[in-house]
Q: What sequence folds into this?
């Protein structure tokens, strides 16, 4: 995957990769699925390492080998709490005041989109894209002020991440589709792979992209 190399990495936001999912619908461990010659985990990790000075990988209770030794690997503080638990863990371990969190099953992360959202985050507690299908909770920026609300949610076993939006104490910056389309016209940044059909679609997209690049290079 060709990356736009960032000259200056973001030092105010930690990149957090959620990599502890159960992959039930996929039927296989999504972290090791290969797309365009690279595992889904390594594709996502490559983007985060390119953009952020500090990168944290959040796992569940299991051990999992991470090839990049420049990143921090941590385990869920409160196990079996899905994305809410991963977000709580990532925020807890981050040394920066804010994190950009993303799931490892999102194969088309765009560093320009990430940097654009970071530029809009300001003093907001949550900076999240609002697309036609709804607010994207696992591709966004969160401040450490979210921690008390998240901690109560996971301890109460309320794992519906969208309920974080109901917290009156937290300021939300919604990033509209129109603010993203100029840098990601197909909104591929927000595509995630939940099933074998999703994986096949992603493979078709990468093959189509490779064909266009080959033709443009002739």
A:
């Amino acid at each position: 995957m060709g990356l736009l190399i960032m000259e200056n990495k973001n030092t105010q936001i930690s990149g957090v990769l959620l990599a502890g999912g159960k992959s039930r619908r996929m039927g296989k461990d999504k972290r090791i699925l290969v797309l365009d010659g690279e595992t889904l985990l390594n594709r996502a990790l490559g983007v985060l390492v390119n953009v952020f000075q500090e990168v944290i990988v959040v796992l569940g209770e299991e051990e999992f080998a991470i090839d990049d030794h420049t990143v921090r690997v941590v385990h869920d503080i409160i196990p079996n709490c899905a994305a809410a638990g991963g977000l709580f863990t990532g925020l807890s371990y981050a040394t920066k005041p804010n994190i950009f969190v993303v799931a490892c099953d999102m194969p088309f992360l765009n560093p320009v989109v990430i940097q654009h959202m970071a530029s809009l985050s300001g003093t907001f507690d949550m900076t999240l894209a609002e697309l036609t299908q709804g607010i994207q909770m696992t591709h966004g920026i969160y401040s450490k002020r979210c921690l008390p609300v998240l901690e109560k949610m996971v301890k109460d076993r309320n794992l519906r991440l969208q309920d974080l939006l109901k917290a009156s104490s937290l300021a939300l910056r919604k990033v509209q589709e129109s603010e993203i389309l100029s840098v990601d016209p197909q909104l591929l940044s927000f595509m995630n792979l939940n099933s074998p059909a999703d994986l096949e679609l992603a493979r078709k997209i990468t093959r189509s992209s490779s064909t266009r690049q080959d033709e443009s290079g002739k």
